[in-house]
Amino acid sequence: MDFHIFQTPEEASHSLARGIASLIKRCEVAGKRPVIGLATGRTPLALYRELVRMHREEGLSFRNVITFNLDEYHGLGRNHPKSYWRFMHENLFDHLDILPENIHVPRGDIEPEDTVRECQEYEAAIADAGGIDLQILGIGRTGHIGFNEPGSGAHTRTRLVELDPVTRADAVADFGHLSAVPEMALTVGCGTILEARSIALMAWGSGKATVVGKAFLGPVSGDVPASFLQDHPSVSLYLDEPAAELLAAGCEEKHHHSKD
Predict the structure, then answer these.
(1) 1, 23, 68, 190: which could join 104 in a potential S-S bond, CB 3.0 to 4.6 Å?
(2) pLDDT recorded at residue 140
């Protein structure tokens, strides 16, 4: 596991953006289409701004890129102002040369009885694309990745889930009041995430320090689903200094004991 600690989220995001650009160019040379898993929320916004800048100012093309988003709120249509479909278009897709048919976001506007089929088709689309080359993740205060809340298993697949009260409370800032926050969401499963060939997780601010410490210094457990990443062969963490505080201290302590 690689730890990259930066002074600001912008510096971290710019570093990760350069890594994404490198992946795109390597795949282009190899005649392959890069498949990138994307996250939503406030954490990746600086990353998406930098990718848009690189497209506009440096000619980075996304024409051959295939994307799969991690999740979507259940019950929200694509035109809902708080849907992740709309979020991704407003903050990234509308500003790139990515082809519409290469964009994948789970559909939130489906009836509960249709969710199993929708989730199976989403999994099949990932497989048909050749799997995820790079999965971008954030981490929630519950330790969730995607919307895989505490209690999720390491082998779970795309499915409909109930959102943790902490996750819903954190979303109040976006929706205005708790009653407007959806109670359910569709999410790519932990097992699907762990099949990505490489993973990059971002976290900013002191409010994420505790959960980052639990996820990467504590035991591997469904109580903190992000901890499953400890068993993945290619994970990179992009953290600002406040988010990395406990992790850095814990790693330093482990190193000190190993020398003793």
Answers:
(1) 68
(2) 95
